[in-house]
Amino acid sequence: ARAAAAAMEEEQTCCAVSISSSPDSPQPAAGPCSCSGVVLSRGPGLVLCHGAGFAAFLRDGPAAWAQPHALLPDALQPCLRLLVLHPSAGTRIPALSRDAPAALHSPAGALQQHEAQLLALVPCRTFQKALAQAFGQAEQWRFGGEAAGADPRALHWFAWLRVPGLDCPAGGWTAQASAGCLRKGEGLLACGSPFGALCPDLFLNTLSKGVVSNVAGEENALLLTDARCLPGTEGGGAFLPSAAGSRLVAIIAASFCWKGAEWVGLTLLCSLAAILRSSAGVLHAAGVAVPPVPGRVAAVQAAGGQDPLGWVALVECGGTWGSGVLLSPRLLLTCRHVVEAGDPLCVTPAPGPSRASTVLSGRLVFATEESSPFDVAVVELQDSVPGFDPPRPAHTFLPGEEVRVMGFGALGRACGPSVTAGVLSAVVTVAGRPVMLQTTCAVHGGSSGGPLVSSRSGRLLGKLGVSRGGCVGVPRMDTMTRVSLLSPPGIVASNTRDTSTGATYPHLNFCIPITILQPLVARYRRTRDPNAFAKLNRAGEGVRAAWRLQRQPGPPSKL
């Protein structure tokens, strides 16, 4: 009942926004365009949405996005018609009559349609700076739909709409929280309307669950979440669940992210607090008093007492980098393809509350042969990681169990390790023993070698690695991820790539169960003999076939 009530809160807060030229406009008709929005206030009625939907109606065209200040209504073509589509109280899937008048207060079960006026388009400079910090130009980041054709100059622009039909005498501001207090891995709920106002009776205010994957900028002005959103949800809200009810923390800025040719299964968010600070002048001029955004709220906590981010490290070898999982203050597991260049190893454990970011030298103790199905390397650090709390390895794997992957994929060095959540979708066994784990977590190039962790128990399940199905490395960053299970289940090995089309599937990935690695690690600790890991090179044909992604005879797998 609590979950259902919370879902209704998000759905009643969000809306869809339609932008079109009025029939009597002197300008050639543009659009219509639409996106999602959030009802921030009912006294007065205010809606906040993303600004990119107004691009087709700018008098000066895309060059207007370079302005350092807010754009007022006269910066747009005259005679625009703005409509806000909002669900009536107590309804989940409303029906909208085609001839419904504006601001119709329809009975429960119907969709309300309100006329709106643009107050201003406002740039969020704090978000813009965070974008530059997190997404380097050399890495060819793109944002938008599948073609990723959206103008990147519009990413940090947001629109304020005055909606008289939403005025309520007893109305106030939507419950909010500051993104500055969010932690990586914390749960979020995204709400938006796929395809905007195209088919609101089916898609209005749909929900998606995820976690805070990464943050950047002043007071976390920029956030990435693995909550899956679709084009048209831009302008929708991201909510922090709490015991006192959900609170709005961020606005969806881009539903899809691409890094080069690789689709990154993450959604880009802008902190609501950052937008409000950037909009203070515009709202003051409109006579709107903005309440302060509260800081920390009592969020819903995940199970487990340890912080798994303390087990993650950035591993650099020459021009290649990937992830690793620390098993002890001086012992680290990663993937062979991360360290195979043979250059000096630099290991940077993820910083924590009591641990600063420090670069440590590493020595390669063991690496599997190229012919081994297991892509594993063992590294010993010259110095101990201070304050290290080692992971507890898992012993069993439960398909359907909620899991998380951690590593330096996607953003890499720029913002520290990322976190993505999913479920353990399959446990592949040979002769009754787990030899491969599959998850639905979003995994990206750079995650290889990172830990797979059980969300329920906090145990290490495994590590990410690489399959033998023909994946090809990319300079500077590994393109595959493998997971193995420790009381988290494992270590990330690889995501999936279709070699015939080049398409990458971040939500299908493979991990090495920690149950394979843990006995070998224990033997090495006793003997200090690297040959303790030689068994990884002698895997049987059944294991090799599984990691080739092809158990039946036939043409080579295209995956």
UniProtKB/TrEMBL annotation:
Molecular function, one GO term: serine-type endopeptidase activity
Q: Which InterPro entries match?
A: Peptidase_S1_PA (IPR009003), Peptidase_S1_PA_chymotrypsin (IPR043504), TYSND1/DEG15 (IPR039245)
Query: Is Cytoplasm there in the keyword field?
Result: no
Superkingdom, taxonomy of origin: Eukaryota
Q: Which Gene3D superfamilies match?
A: Trypsin-like serine proteases (2.40.10.10)
Which UniProt keyword terms apply here? Answer: Hydrolase, Protease
Query: One biological-process term from Gene Ontology?
Result: regulation of fatty acid beta-oxidation
- Pfam families, alphabetically? Trypsin_2
Recorded GO CC terms: peroxisome
Keyword Protease present in the record's keywords: the answer is yes
Q: What PANTHER family does the annotation carry?
A: PEROXISOMAL LEADER PEPTIDE-PROCESSING PROTEASE (PTHR21004:SF0), SERINE PROTEASE-RELATED (PTHR21004)
> What is the name listed in the Swiss-Prot or TrEMBL entry for this protein?
TYSD1 protease
* Source organism (scientific name): Pampusana beccarii
Q: Which gene encodes it?
A: Tysnd1
